[in-house]
Amino acid sequence: MIFDKKLNKLCKNLLVSVAVLIGLGTQVFAQDSINVGVLRFTSHSAAFIAYEKGYFKEAGLTAKLVPFQAAAPMAIAIASGDIDYGVTAISGALVNLAEKGAIRIIGGALTEEKGVDGQKILVSNKAYASGVRKASDLKGRSFGLTQTGSSFHYMASQIAKKEGFSSKEISLKPLQKVGVIIGALKSGQIDAWSIVPHIAKALHKSGGAKIIGNVADYIDGYQITTIFTSKNNATNKRALTKNFLAAYSKGIKEFNDVMIDKKRGASAIESTTRLIHKYVYTSRPYKKAAGSIQAGSMRLQPDGRLNLTSVKHQLDWFKAEKLVPASASIKNLVDTSYVKTY
After folding, report:
1. What is the pLDDT of residues 158-215, one digit of tens each?
2. Are residues 98 and 245 in the same domain?
3. Both 228 and 274 in a single domain?
4. Which of 200, 217, 234 is the last residue of a domain?
């Protein structure tokens, strides 16, 4: 009889333990799995920080970072469902996919800000030696792009316009990948390019190319990269999307506080630089990469806010260049319900 009571008690305790384990298991499996597209640039550090510091997990997300080498393939991956969220520049591919109902921009990331070192205009040593010393000298020269309709295409066009000549008077060279562009610039196969400072300054310092100007002098308040997702996620998975933005925004705040505003001291800069180095300049020893990572840090939009004025300007340019339908609309491109816009 005593044995039966002990057995019953043991069984009850076992059932309680199983129920607790099931409950814990439910919590674990309740986390949403997401794939996040990134480029191996310092400008994508918010994703690296959110991943490494556990901010995605805190938001109930099991995140996987998926690297890309250009903006257009990332837009296509969002549309196909291979990734759930991405951060990259607006491209013709992205706009066209938005018009087809596949993609929506939901926030902003990298931005040009006065007082913060920004994107640079580079020329090859060969071009520099032949007299290309300023942006006005780019007329008749070649300019490297990833793809036609990329942010590089947009920047080249805006530089030419402000210097008083047409982008058609520059020979645009789509080379698909950033690494290929760097090789072409260093070897003198192309004359010019524009890129974020951690790459530009490293090329200049190593003697691989020459910096001749700043993109900020040609494009006012440029919203360089945006946060985007599928229309389905933006419309039908609002809680998931808000959780992603909350985690990403924590990464943005930490990056800005540490690397831009330097609010947390030298030790925080050191540890954050080491974190970023896991993803950026991984082929270099830390001591050789650290300076470029730190010098190339640019402002990320607090809370993912979006410069809608800049996005509209880019959309108008895409339409003028006939890279997207004339009917393409900001309504189809941007879901303004998630972040502040201006």
Report:
1. 999 999 999 899 999 999 998 999 999 999 999 999 998 888 988 999 999 999 999 9
2. yes
3. yes
4. 217
Tokens of 221: 């308040």
pLDDT in the model for residue 30:
63
Contacts of 204 (CB under 8 A, 6+ apart): 120, 122, 210, 211
Determine contact, residues 168/119, Cβ cutoff 8 Å. Answer: no
Please give the model's pTM, rounded to 2 decimal places: 0.83
Q: Running DSSP on this structure, what letter comes out for residue 322?
A: T
Residue 177 phi, psi dihedral angles, 5° rounding: -125, 145
- CA angle (48 as vertex; 215, 338 as ends), nearest 5: 75
Examine the domain organization and report whether 252 and 277 are in the same domain: yes
Domain boundary among 183, 217, 251: 217
| Residues 71 and 211 reside in one and the same domain | no
3-class secondary-structure state, position 332: helix
- Partnered with residue 173 across adjacent β-strands are 144
Within the chain, where are the H helices?
2-29, 45-52, 55-58, 71-80, 92-99, 125-129, 151-163, 178-186, 197-206, 231-236, 238-255, 265-277, 286-295, 308-320, 330-333
Residue 291 in domain = yes
Classify residue 161: in a domain, yes or no.
Answer: yes
Flag whether 322 is in a domain.
Answer: yes
How many domains are there within the chain? 2
Q: Is 219 exposed, middle or buried, given 0-12, 13-18 or 19+ CB atoms closer than 10 A?
A: buried
Domain that holds residue 153: 120-217
Nearest to 107, CA basis, from 226, 263, 207, 25: 226
The DSSP bridge pattern shows strands 171-174 and 142-145 to be parallel
Evaluate whether 141 touches 63 at the Cβ level (below 8 Å): no
Task: Assign residue 133 the CATH number of its domain.
Answer: 3.40.190.10
Query: DSSP string of 114-149?
Result: TTS---EEEE-HHHHHTT--SGGGGTT-EEEESSTT
| Whether residue 57 is found in the same domain as residue 186 | no
